[in-house]
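The aim of this short unit is practical: by the end, you should be able to scan a pair of folded records and say something sensible about each. We start with the first protein, listed as its amino acid sequence and then its C-alpha coordinates.
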Amino acid sequence: MSQEHSSALEVFLPENTLDYFVITDWNKDDLDVCITLEEKDDPPGSLRDQEKNIISKGFHDITITDFPIRGKRALLTFRRRYWQVEGRKELLKRDIPLAFPGTQLETEFAHFLKEKGRRQPDVARFYRRYAPPPDQGV
Protein backbone atom coordinates (compact mmCIF):
# COMPACT_ATOMS: atom_id res chain seq x y z
CA MET A 1 0.00 0.00 0.00
CA SER A 2 1.31 3.44 -0.88
CA GLN A 3 2.44 5.92 1.77
CA GLU A 4 -0.37 8.30 0.73
CA HIS A 5 -3.05 5.63 1.32
CA SER A 6 -1.53 4.66 4.67
CA SER A 7 -1.38 8.29 5.78
CA ALA A 8 -5.02 8.83 4.82
CA LEU A 9 -6.22 5.67 6.60
CA GLU A 10 -4.17 6.57 9.70
CA VAL A 11 -6.83 9.21 10.48
CA PHE A 12 -9.33 6.38 11.07
CA LEU A 13 -7.04 4.19 13.19
CA PRO A 14 -6.47 4.13 16.95
CA GLU A 15 -3.65 6.42 18.04
CA ASN A 16 -0.08 5.12 17.45
CA THR A 17 -1.27 2.07 15.48
CA LEU A 18 1.21 2.64 12.67
CA ASP A 19 4.09 2.63 15.17
CA TYR A 20 3.74 -1.16 15.34
CA PHE A 21 1.68 -2.10 12.25
CA VAL A 22 1.58 -1.51 8.51
CA ILE A 23 -1.65 -1.45 6.52
CA THR A 24 -1.63 -4.40 4.12
CA ASP A 25 -5.21 -4.37 2.82
CA TRP A 26 -8.55 -2.62 3.07
CA ASN A 27 -11.95 -3.01 1.46
CA LYS A 28 -15.55 -1.99 1.96
CA ASP A 29 -18.95 -3.41 1.21
CA ASP A 30 -22.52 -2.34 1.98
CA LEU A 31 -22.13 -2.88 5.73
CA ASP A 32 -18.45 -2.84 6.65
CA VAL A 33 -15.12 -1.11 6.16
CA CYS A 34 -12.37 -3.69 6.77
CA ILE A 35 -8.74 -2.72 7.32
CA THR A 36 -5.99 -5.33 7.73
CA LEU A 37 -2.82 -4.38 9.57
CA GLU A 38 0.29 -6.55 9.89
CA GLU A 39 2.71 -6.19 12.79
CA LYS A 40 6.14 -5.03 11.69
CA ASP A 41 8.92 -7.62 11.82
CA ASP A 42 10.66 -5.75 14.62
CA PRO A 43 11.12 -7.93 17.73
CA PRO A 44 10.75 -6.28 21.16
CA GLY A 45 13.89 -4.44 22.34
CA SER A 46 14.88 -7.09 24.87
CA LEU A 47 15.02 -9.71 22.11
CA ARG A 48 17.10 -7.58 19.75
CA ASP A 49 19.80 -7.16 22.39
CA GLN A 50 20.41 -10.90 22.60
CA GLU A 51 23.12 -12.61 20.60
CA LYS A 52 20.84 -15.45 19.51
CA ASN A 53 19.00 -15.70 16.21
CA ILE A 54 15.37 -14.47 16.33
CA ILE A 55 12.93 -16.02 13.88
CA SER A 56 9.47 -14.75 12.95
CA LYS A 57 7.11 -17.71 13.40
CA GLY A 58 3.91 -16.43 11.81
CA PHE A 59 0.80 -14.55 12.78
CA HIS A 60 -2.32 -14.69 14.92
CA ASP A 61 -5.23 -12.58 13.63
CA ILE A 62 -7.37 -10.48 15.97
CA THR A 63 -10.40 -8.60 14.61
CA ILE A 64 -11.87 -5.75 16.63
CA THR A 65 -14.68 -3.28 16.00
CA ASP A 66 -13.89 0.43 15.96
CA PHE A 67 -15.92 3.62 15.49
CA PRO A 68 -18.21 3.45 12.42
CA ILE A 69 -16.89 5.10 9.27
CA ARG A 70 -19.50 6.82 7.10
CA GLY A 71 -22.30 4.72 8.62
CA LYS A 72 -20.45 1.44 8.08
CA ARG A 73 -19.06 -0.81 10.81
CA ALA A 74 -15.26 -0.51 11.00
CA LEU A 75 -13.47 -3.83 11.42
CA LEU A 76 -9.75 -3.77 12.12
CA THR A 77 -7.90 -7.05 11.67
CA PHE A 78 -4.53 -7.00 13.40
CA ARG A 79 -2.11 -9.70 12.26
CA ARG A 80 -0.04 -10.14 15.44
CA ARG A 81 3.46 -11.50 14.85
CA TYR A 82 5.13 -14.16 17.00
CA TRP A 83 8.87 -14.68 17.35
CA GLN A 84 11.04 -17.51 18.59
CA VAL A 85 14.49 -17.04 20.04
CA GLU A 86 16.94 -19.70 18.87
CA GLY A 87 17.20 -22.43 21.51
CA ARG A 88 13.88 -21.66 23.24
CA LYS A 89 10.59 -23.48 22.85
CA GLU A 90 8.13 -20.72 23.77
CA LEU A 91 6.88 -18.17 21.26
CA LEU A 92 7.13 -14.50 22.18
CA LYS A 93 5.02 -11.51 21.18
CA ARG A 94 5.01 -7.79 21.78
CA ASP A 95 2.50 -6.60 24.42
CA ILE A 96 0.26 -4.20 22.49
CA PRO A 97 -3.21 -3.67 23.99
CA LEU A 98 -5.66 -3.69 21.09
CA ALA A 99 -9.13 -4.35 22.51
CA PHE A 100 -10.93 -3.34 25.67
CA PRO A 101 -10.59 -6.29 28.11
CA GLY A 102 -13.38 -8.83 27.67
CA THR A 103 -14.64 -7.33 24.40
CA GLN A 104 -13.90 -7.23 20.70
CA LEU A 105 -14.10 -3.43 20.76
CA GLU A 106 -11.28 -0.93 20.38
CA THR A 107 -10.66 0.61 23.82
CA GLU A 108 -11.65 4.19 22.99
CA PHE A 109 -14.79 2.96 21.19
CA ALA A 110 -15.77 0.80 24.18
CA HIS A 111 -15.43 3.79 26.52
CA PHE A 112 -17.52 5.89 24.12
CA LEU A 113 -20.34 3.32 23.99
CA LYS A 114 -20.27 2.87 27.75
CA GLU A 115 -20.55 6.61 28.40
CA LYS A 116 -23.13 7.25 25.69
CA GLY A 117 -25.14 4.21 26.82
CA ARG A 118 -25.50 5.76 30.26
CA ARG A 119 -26.88 8.99 28.84
CA GLN A 120 -28.56 7.76 25.65
CA PRO A 121 -29.60 4.08 25.69
CA ASP A 122 -30.58 4.30 22.01
CA VAL A 123 -26.89 4.50 21.00
CA ALA A 124 -26.29 0.82 21.80
CA ARG A 125 -29.49 -0.22 19.98
CA PHE A 126 -28.44 1.85 16.95
CA TYR A 127 -25.03 0.20 16.86
CA ARG A 128 -26.46 -3.33 17.20
CA ARG A 129 -28.34 -2.85 13.91
CA TYR A 130 -24.97 -2.83 12.14
CA ALA A 131 -23.30 -5.58 14.13
CA PRO A 132 -23.97 -9.29 13.60
CA PRO A 133 -25.38 -11.31 16.50
CA PRO A 134 -22.66 -12.23 19.06
CA ASP A 135 -22.79 -15.93 18.13
CA GLN A 136 -21.79 -15.10 14.53
CA GLY A 137 -18.60 -13.25 15.46
CA VAL A 138 -17.05 -10.89 12.93
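Turning to the second protein, read its sequence before its C-alpha coordinates, just as you did above.
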Amino acid sequence: MFTKLPDSIDLNGLRKEVDQILSGQSSLQIGLQSNKPNGSWKDAIGKGTNMVETEFTHLVFDSPLINHYITKYNMHRTRIFVSTPKTCLSWHHDRLPRIHIPIQTDPGCIMIVENEAMHLEAGSIYRVDTRKHHSAMNGSKLNRIHIVGCVSD
Protein backbone atom coordinates (compact mmCIF):
# COMPACT_ATOMS: atom_id res chain seq x y z
CA MET A 1 0.00 0.00 0.00
CA PHE A 2 2.91 2.35 0.81
CA THR A 3 6.08 2.29 -1.25
CA LYS A 4 8.89 4.60 -0.19
CA LEU A 5 10.73 5.57 -3.37
CA PRO A 6 14.54 5.48 -3.30
CA ASP A 7 15.00 9.08 -4.46
CA SER A 8 16.16 11.89 -2.25
CA ILE A 9 14.65 15.34 -2.65
CA ASP A 10 15.67 18.94 -2.11
CA LEU A 11 13.33 19.49 0.83
CA ASN A 12 14.52 23.03 1.59
CA GLY A 13 14.06 24.06 -2.04
CA LEU A 14 10.60 22.50 -2.17
CA ARG A 15 9.62 24.22 1.10
CA LYS A 16 10.61 27.60 -0.37
CA GLU A 17 8.50 27.03 -3.49
CA VAL A 18 5.53 25.72 -1.48
CA ASP A 19 5.77 28.69 0.90
CA GLN A 20 5.74 31.08 -2.09
CA ILE A 21 2.63 29.41 -3.53
CA LEU A 22 0.82 29.28 -0.19
CA SER A 23 1.74 32.88 0.71
CA GLY A 24 -1.47 34.90 0.99
CA GLN A 25 -3.69 31.89 0.19
CA SER A 26 -6.45 30.79 2.53
CA SER A 27 -7.32 27.63 0.61
CA LEU A 28 -6.28 24.26 2.05
CA GLN A 29 -5.84 22.87 -1.46
CA ILE A 30 -3.88 24.52 -4.27
CA GLY A 31 -3.81 22.96 -7.72
CA LEU A 32 -0.38 22.77 -9.35
CA GLN A 33 -1.73 21.56 -12.70
CA SER A 34 -4.72 22.50 -14.80
CA ASN A 35 -6.66 20.67 -17.50
CA LYS A 36 -6.21 23.63 -19.86
CA PRO A 37 -3.30 25.83 -20.96
CA ASN A 38 -2.99 28.99 -18.85
CA GLY A 39 -5.47 27.51 -16.37
CA SER A 40 -5.97 28.45 -12.75
CA TRP A 41 -4.79 26.74 -9.57
CA LYS A 42 -8.50 26.33 -8.76
CA ASP A 43 -9.12 24.00 -11.74
CA ALA A 44 -7.78 20.86 -10.01
CA ILE A 45 -9.20 21.28 -6.51
CA GLY A 46 -12.25 19.60 -5.03
CA LYS A 47 -13.47 16.05 -4.97
CA GLY A 48 -12.88 15.44 -8.65
CA THR A 49 -16.07 13.42 -9.12
CA ASN A 50 -16.50 14.45 -12.75
CA MET A 51 -12.85 15.15 -13.50
CA VAL A 52 -10.64 13.11 -15.80
CA GLU A 53 -7.54 13.29 -13.63
CA THR A 54 -5.12 12.37 -16.43
CA GLU A 55 -6.13 15.55 -18.33
CA PHE A 56 -4.52 17.78 -15.67
CA THR A 57 -1.05 18.11 -17.17
CA HIS A 58 -0.59 21.87 -17.67
CA LEU A 59 1.72 23.38 -15.05
CA VAL A 60 0.21 26.38 -13.27
CA PHE A 61 3.18 27.85 -11.36
CA ASP A 62 6.74 28.70 -12.36
CA SER A 63 8.20 26.48 -9.63
CA PRO A 64 11.21 24.64 -11.08
CA LEU A 65 11.67 22.04 -8.32
CA ILE A 66 7.99 21.21 -7.92
CA ASN A 67 7.59 21.00 -11.69
CA HIS A 68 10.70 18.76 -11.89
CA TYR A 69 9.11 16.18 -9.57
CA ILE A 70 5.73 16.42 -11.31
CA THR A 71 7.44 15.66 -14.61
CA LYS A 72 9.83 13.02 -13.23
CA TYR A 73 6.99 10.96 -11.72
CA ASN A 74 4.50 11.64 -14.54
CA MET A 75 2.06 13.11 -12.03
CA HIS A 76 -1.23 14.71 -12.99
CA ARG A 77 -3.84 16.70 -11.08
CA THR A 78 -1.10 17.50 -8.60
CA ARG A 79 -2.00 19.67 -5.63
CA ILE A 80 -0.62 21.06 -2.41
CA PHE A 81 -2.73 19.75 0.47
CA VAL A 82 -2.74 21.48 3.84
CA SER A 83 -4.28 19.57 6.74
CA THR A 84 -4.82 21.75 9.78
CA PRO A 85 -4.06 20.47 13.30
CA LYS A 86 -6.42 17.95 14.86
CA THR A 87 -8.29 17.10 11.65
CA CYS A 88 -9.03 13.88 9.77
CA LEU A 89 -10.16 13.05 6.24
CA SER A 90 -13.19 10.86 5.61
CA TRP A 91 -12.69 7.15 4.83
CA HIS A 92 -12.61 7.06 1.03
CA HIS A 93 -10.86 5.68 -2.04
CA ASP A 94 -9.56 7.30 -5.21
CA ARG A 95 -9.60 6.23 -8.85
CA LEU A 96 -5.81 6.30 -9.20
CA PRO A 97 -2.77 5.80 -6.94
CA ARG A 98 -1.00 8.90 -5.62
CA ILE A 99 2.53 10.15 -5.12
CA HIS A 100 2.97 11.92 -1.77
CA ILE A 101 5.83 14.30 -1.12
CA PRO A 102 5.59 15.41 2.53
CA ILE A 103 6.83 18.97 2.95
CA GLN A 104 5.84 19.62 6.58
CA THR A 105 4.76 16.88 8.93
CA ASP A 106 4.98 15.61 12.49
CA PRO A 107 4.92 12.12 14.04
CA GLY A 108 1.27 12.82 14.97
CA CYS A 109 0.40 12.89 11.25
CA ILE A 110 -0.65 9.41 10.13
CA MET A 111 -1.98 8.02 6.86
CA ILE A 112 -4.06 4.85 7.01
CA VAL A 113 -4.64 2.58 4.01
CA GLU A 114 -6.99 -0.29 4.85
CA ASN A 115 -5.32 -1.87 7.91
CA GLU A 116 -1.89 -0.25 7.57
CA ALA A 117 -0.96 3.04 9.24
CA MET A 118 2.19 5.01 8.47
CA HIS A 119 3.81 8.35 9.19
CA LEU A 120 5.11 9.73 5.88
CA GLU A 121 8.41 11.49 6.61
CA ALA A 122 9.39 14.84 5.12
CA GLY A 123 12.31 14.47 2.74
CA SER A 124 10.98 11.23 1.25
CA ILE A 125 8.67 10.38 -1.63
CA TYR A 126 5.95 7.74 -1.38
CA ARG A 127 3.71 5.96 -3.85
CA VAL A 128 0.45 5.12 -2.09
CA ASP A 129 -2.27 2.87 -3.47
CA THR A 130 -5.16 5.19 -2.69
CA ARG A 131 -7.51 3.06 -4.79
CA LYS A 132 -7.90 1.19 -1.50
CA HIS A 133 -9.90 2.76 1.31
CA HIS A 134 -7.79 5.26 3.21
CA SER A 135 -7.74 8.34 5.41
CA ALA A 136 -5.19 10.73 6.87
CA MET A 137 -5.19 12.42 10.24
CA ASN A 138 -3.26 15.31 11.63
CA GLY A 139 -3.01 14.74 15.37
CA SER A 140 -0.28 17.34 15.76
CA LYS A 141 -0.15 21.06 16.52
CA LEU A 142 1.32 21.90 13.09
CA ASN A 143 -0.13 22.04 9.60
CA ARG A 144 0.57 18.87 7.60
CA ILE A 145 1.61 19.90 4.09
CA HIS A 146 2.01 17.39 1.24
CA ILE A 147 2.40 17.67 -2.51
CA VAL A 148 0.06 14.99 -3.88
CA GLY A 149 -0.30 13.90 -7.49
CA CYS A 150 -2.19 11.18 -9.31
CA VAL A 151 -0.20 8.56 -11.19
CA SER A 152 -1.35 5.95 -13.68
CA ASP A 153 -0.59 2.28 -13.20
